[in-house]
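[scheduler] slot 2 assigned
[scheduler] job type: sequence-to-structure, two independent chains
[scheduler] chain ordering preserved from manifest
[runner] begin chain α
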Amino acid sequence: MSFKAFKTALACTLSAAMLLGAAACGTTDEATSGSGSSSSSSTTGYDVSGIKKDASIAAMLPDSVTKDGKLTVGMELTYAPAEFLKEDGKTPVGYDVDLSNALGKVFGLDTQIISASFDSIVPSVGSKYDLGITSLTITKERMDAVNFVSYYKAGATWVVKKGNPQKVDTSDLCGKKIAVQTGTVEEEDANKAAKQCKTDGKKTLEVLSSKLQTDAATNVVTGKADVFYADSPVAGYAISQTDGQLQALGKDEGSVKQGIAIAKNDDQTTKAVQKAVQKLMDDGTYMKILKHWGVQSGALDKAEINPTDLS
């Protein structure tokens, strides 16, 4: 997976976090319109302005979504290259942003991205946001709270300092410090490993959980943590932004589906989103978006509602 096109120092992405700290990337439920056609830069999204409204799909949406003319989407905007902020520190970009803008075009609605902390998004779908699109791994537990439409798949990657100076061995992490983002599947896995270390009477595994993904990566660069654990496209992008300071440890682990979250009781919106995503898959727009960001290896060819095969 290559991200060579994005080597410039990006404000509010990992490189900026290394130099400036992540304060400018706060997630405070701020709304921004997604035009899908930004000015030319190293972080310009895929242009979705040519996508036409599909009246039959748009008609499937309930009035609760369409009445204000907006499609509101909750995102945690420190998860490059899926969703993050441009150099101006204000404009959302990434493949999830482009997909959200494309869905808005299909529905004939103005997409508004609302920045929020990752762990608050699923509970807020249906109240604060119409959709949650933020690299959400589909799990049985999350499906108890929301409906999902699958649209991507990703593995998980361990990342350490170049040369692995702390001698991290993923087969035995006891005694190490793991950095993760709060509310992620990776945090769950790290906490399970920590409990196992305690059960086995081994050295304590310390889990450093941060609200921002950039902080998790920064903790490894600065030596606060020995290793960080994240979705493979996010880890790959982080590595590409540190000028050789980080490296992947071993191969990606697993491959699980990610989904768009919709309120559990909103069958109309769920079915409309499934139809819209499938349309974008079938007409080639979806793949063009993924290729634009170099993440096409995670593409799916079928959008499913609450899939039973999660891998």
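[runner] end chain α
[runner] begin chain β
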Amino acid sequence: MRLVWCAGVAALSVCASTVAAVPVPAGGTRAVPAGSASLSTAFDPAELKSALDGVHRAGMPGVFAEVRDADRTWRGASGIADLGTGRPVTPGMRHRVGSVTKTFTAAAVMQQVERGRIRLDAPIGDYLPHLVPGERGRKITVRMLLNHTSGIPDHIRYAFPSLQKFPSPDTPQSLDDNRFRRFRPAELIEMGLDAPAAGEPGALPGVYSNTNYLLLGQLLERVTGTTAEEYITRHVIQRAGLRRTGFPAGPRIKGPHPRMYEALHGLIDPPRDYSLYHMSWVMTGAGLVSTMEDLNRFYGRLLDGRIVSRSSLAQMRQTVPVIALDGTTIDYGLGLHKVVTPGCGTFWGHDGTAWGAGTRSLTRADGRRQMSVAVNLTRWNTVDSSGQPRHHPIDDALEAVYQRAMCGDEKDRAENASQDPALLP
């Protein structure tokens, strides 16, 4: 359960509370179907609250989460939303959820696959010859964009050129310069295509790239006749019944939200507030604002076959090895990340960052257990002389949150670990 969205230097490309157990909102998660394997999933609210407090004590300004266990929901928060005023973070705050957006975009693409307007294994050049011309457009398929095997590199280091100077003191400069810039998708895609290729189309392992999902946004616009953001809002966000999720129209976030602090591996000290930021540089790849409650509802409904068909969901769950932005290799499907936790089962979801904001949302394969966690400080690890991130107490504290949120208490983990592995979802 390694924290992909903050740990690595390569991830420069993007990456006091009320606690209660309440009934799951309508349409949240469903019971395990008859005959399915069932793991013990009880949670202890006191343990979860203590784990969040541990993250704050370790140096995180604010952390908030929602955990669902079949018919129970726990929401909690710890720490500060605004270091200037001391305003506390609360569980229902809206947050930039970064690359969690990719699952929404992938679901929208799969809906168009079901309608016959997109073919997964068709060359992207058939749809967008003006953006991906020539041999590359003939070799790269829609599926390769979805599972990051296109070989197109990430564009972020070219949109923010000072990042290429890491770890120079000038590294943060382009983050500030581009706060209010409105990038056009075509210019960002061109940056990715003009950069040295990350690999051959279809080669394994794939290489994670935000440019892939900008192309998918343009593909949606091409086949639906509307903007990708509008299509995703109408046919994914609204279909899932999400009330506090959406693409921001400008640099501001509407509604209660924490300020979002970026440390850039110690190069910004003290960490700087980037909560006011135009997300045009990665909109259909990482632009959404949401809540932890909405994310759990979304993944619950997606994995229950209510956003895309069961056959589309099966395609989304076909994983390949992909090199993540922190250099680790992950199991990645079509907009879904697979996480296997010994003794706890198989989880599906995504994690993501924007400048200063981190989110992780995972749902167990049987649908009974869900976890969404948000933090308002990113890239907190300083680096050593070789450029590798140093271990930080926040890393251990977040790991403890994930263990308790995904696996229950110590008794549950022991019971689950003793089961026949073939019975794990």
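[runner] end chain β
[qc] chain β: The longest strand covers residues 72-82.
[scheduler] slot 2 released
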